[in-house]
Design brief:
The chain is mainly alpha-helical. Helix content is 62%, strand content 0%. Helix 4 runs antiparallel to helix 5. The longest helix is centred in the last third of the chain and has 17 residues. The protein is flat and about 45 Å long. It starts with a helix and ends with a helix.
């Protein structure tokens, strides 16, 4: 998440916890932190698809060089895997 944090704007730099790097994101971005937490509770295949969706929602419009084609390839692979496991 460290790489995502620099693309999102925190409400205040004072919200960041420099002693506990695992809590910085959740404190600076509580809504996204809750969503991220819920995604991580899913089974691995669903989690992977939701993490990709979450990253795209949060980063695609913020990153100048967002790897849209690579994301699409990965999304297709994850969807094919999900269909095979049904």
């Amino acid at each position: 998440m460290a790489s995502a944090s620099h693309c999102l704007r925190a409400g205040s730099e004072t919200q960041l916890d420099n002693l506990d790097p695992f809590r910085r994101f959740e404190r600076a971005f509580p809504v996204q932190g809750r969503t991220f937490h819920q995604v991580l509770l899913q089974e691995p295949d669903l989690c992977a698809r939701q993490l990709l969706r979450f990253a795209e929602e949060q980063l695609a419009h913020r990153m100048e060089r967002y790897p849209a084609r690579a994301v699409q390839v990965l999304r297709n692979q994850l969807e094919q895997r999900a269909q095979r496991s049904c």
